[in-house]
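Exercise 7.
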Amino acid sequence: MEEGFSKASNDILNVSKIYSSSLKGVCSTALKAIISDGRLIRPVSHYDFTENCIYMDESKSEEDYMRTFRHEYGHFIDYSLGKISEKPEFVKAFEDDAQLYDVSKDDGIKRLRNLQMEIADNIHAFASEYVTDIISALTRNDTAFIRKYTENATQTSPYDLFYYEKMEGAGMSGHTDLYWDDGPHMSRQKEAFADLFAIWTENNPIVQKFVCDHFPNLSGTFEKIIRTESKR
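Solution. The predicted structure, written as tokens, is:
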């Protein structure tokens, strides 16, 4: 864990340390593998709140492993803070940012087009599966945005941030409509919190500025939550 959190802010480190002892373990996804059509199928990496355990695919490269672990640890912190992604303050922040990109309104269409252009010009944000997963959640996989992003993508992201199924044919990391519609309760808010936690743990200032500029309510509320919890 230390290497994946080596650049994290002090507030992130403090909150992580406060709750680290309550995590029961980091286990292999092989423990949950099933046999289907004669093949051994592992689930994707995930945090299981019923067991308070993070399941990881150890066959991944070290970089991919830690990239995914930061996100899953974010789910653990969310749950440790009493499912804070479901609390009114965070839910309102999510809804306010989603409204910014509401394509039923002219302003929303303009902002989403601007987001398309700005992410294409920002290699760090463009390559961040955390950023695109937030966009996936806020816009409920706006097809025009995904199409434009895919045109600019050189390859489909290999990163493991999909609990149900990958967005086949899309070059953008995110969750499927099936997950947003039929996944865990308030899945969009949960994933956004985990993504923000991962972004602030990775602590790339270029990505953070992009997130603060384009998702001001979520980023501001997240920083406030982490800052407050860090002082407990």
